[in-house]
Design a protein that fits this description.
Layout (H helix, E strand, L loop, with lengths): L1 H19 L3 E3 L2 E3 L4 H13 L3 H14 L8 H21 L13 H29 L7 H27 L3 H5 L2 H65 L6 H14 L3 E10 L8 E7 L15 H9 L1 H4 L5 E5 L9 E7 L8 E10 H10 L6 E6 L8 E3 L14 E10 L2 E10 L5 H65 L3 E6 L4 E4 L1 H7 L3 H4 L4 H4 L10 H8 L5 E8 L5 E12 L5 E10 L3 H20 L20 E6 L3 H10 L6 E6 L5 H8 L3 E5 L1 E2 L2 E2 H10 L8 E5 L4 H9 L4 E4 L4 H11 L1
Parallel strand pairs: 17-18, 17-19, 19-22, 22-23
Antiparallel strand pairs: 1-2, 3-4, 3-7, 5-6, 6-7, 8-9, 8-11, 10-11, 12-13, 12-16, 14-15, 15-16, 20-21
Amino acid sequence: MARLALSLLLVAAVPLLWQLSPQYDISGVMVAPLVPALALALAATACIGWRALPALAAGAAIGAAGWPLGAPGAVGITDALTLLAQAAFGGLLMRRSGRPDDLALETDGAIRRLAASALACGLIGGFARLALDLAWADSPAQRPLFVALVRATADGASVLLLTPVLLAFLAPQKQRWQARRRTVVLPLALLVALSLAAFAGIENRERGHAQARFERDADVVFARTQALLDAPALAVQALGGAMRNANPALSAPAFDALARPWLARMSGVAHLGWLDTPRGDGSGAPTVRHLIGRGATAGGAPAADTDTLPASLLARNGLGRTLTADAVQASPLASIGNDRSGFVLYQALPLEAGASARSVVFATVLGDALMTPLLASRTDALRVCLVDADGRSERRRLYGGSGCESAIGADSSGFAREAGFDFGGRRWTMRISQPLRTPGGVWLFALPALAGGGLFALLLLKVTGRVERIEADARSRTGELRREIEQLRQAHHRDEQALDGAFEAAQTGLALLEADGRVQRANAAFAELVGLPVADVKRKPIDELLGDATRPQRDALATMLHEAGNELVHQTLRLKLPSGRVLPALVTLRVLRDTDGRATAAVCALHDLSDQLRRRHAERVLGEVMDLSGSNPPTLPPPLRTTTRSVPTSAQRILCIHRDAAHAAVVHQALADRPQVQLALAESGASALSRAVADAPHLIVLDAELADGDGLQVLRQLQADQRTRSIPVVVLSDDPRPARIDAAFAEGARAYLTRPVDAAKLSATIDELI
């Protein structure tokens, strides 16, 4: 059903788009800058393959015939065959991979095939236009190679700009296109609309300029034509005046002497002469008394077929009854052979008393001889038609192509102007027309715009396709991570339940401690031994709950927890309860560590020593709990900071590599309350390595900006030496950039502090590393 609907769409839409596509003149031929019919044909062929070609052929045939349907010309037939070839080659090329998702234009391969299709369609269109101009067209382009290049550019740009827009709605992968309609379809549609509007604006501006030039040229031709018509009228008047005032009567040689200068300087005048027309009812035929033609010499005889021409004309029109003395009159000439047109000008002399005939001075004017010199000097392709407005005239056309005497209608392909004037007692009409020929300036803008638009479309498809693939991968990976997190959460929940069960089932006091010694959770037995509710036990330091009444020592259990290894550690004390009772007790601790060996939590067992049996039972239960906690250590929230600090039991050696005494003072301040720490100083990087080997310090504080070089270079040397590789290094620096911090840790630093350095923070960092 979808294929049938698409086929019907091709039959109806291809000719419609063909006719509606704007075209602009270039070198005498019309070319469309964007061809929606080509993009539709290509998209349909890419979607349903060769099955689209019959419907496309039908639509192209209708488009070539035009509306109303008629016999297509050479241009229509060539365009129809070209469209069919472009769709067949370009559309099937886009389907070449056989992967249906390629029509989503997301992969680099699909985008390359689209570019190849655009190139193929452009070459086919260009070669077809060139072949038409060279071999078949009735009016070939003036510059066929340039026109072929323009046609190729327009067809290729149409494929790149319009085909993705159509595929977004015609391709089966509508879900894949849904997200890209805003990022691809909308920008391309706006670009096409703006381009067409710009093309139309430029063309209208050029058309307005051409219209103005035509109006100016038409005024010039109209004025010069009237001047040309006035010349033979003046000649007739001058000769008539000479004959009227001559005494005795003007002889033929004298007439020729007067007429010959007029013939020499006037264009279009074939003859000058006079004739006699009978007096009275005018039933008699006029008789030519004398005639001189153009180029005749003194005494030269006129041609045999010209002496009766004006007389017969006057006889047919009955001029013997309508002659008016002193008025120059005009009348169209009958056919003079070879479809030549013209008119005769005549002036009747006053009728003398007793004369049987009236003399008439006349001049015959040929329209083509009159107008051709005027139009031959112009290069604007103006066409002129001079018409007698009297519809009763036997021959109305005085000058112009055959049929030009018909009324001028509105013609969108050219300009036209019509003006009437009185001449020789008649009403004449001059019609001036010119085919539309703009300079083609629209293509100066259209060619780079189309080329740039095509490249922009390819870049947009490539970028959005890559973004879409990245987003799809991110969505897939996010789903996997969510499933993993959910699995871990469920596993953690099970571990929490198991640990809670073990805690509550134990008959001895148990508490889970954070790394800084605060109680995270405790069972009822532990709360009962310390004499507080379970809710009040949580988040309290262990030394505050289990203070020794006999040997009070600050942070004794926290220090023991910090120094404990991986074995159980014990501490006996006399626990003073809130009720005032003193209870002998045994505290057993075990530290829980992560995979890097850092302490994350600890389990504390509190046993009442008044009952040794319960002690043995507590140790057995504690072992079980330790095994459970060690195999599945719970995930704890980050430990809260405390001011509790371990007290080393032996002297610690620290080497400070500094750039000046001011920076070394910070290290002195951090170690001011630690008399057991031995601090050594190295004032340069050059002596740092030898000093580190000689002193074998437990920790090195390194200034990253040394006076004699980069501190990270010294760090690199320390890590390269087997003797100093294991010494932890704390880097102090003025540079807070992430890249600098990453470089320090990459070289082997264990901590990185930026200035100004807080002495307490430096002291805590030293405690963590030693």
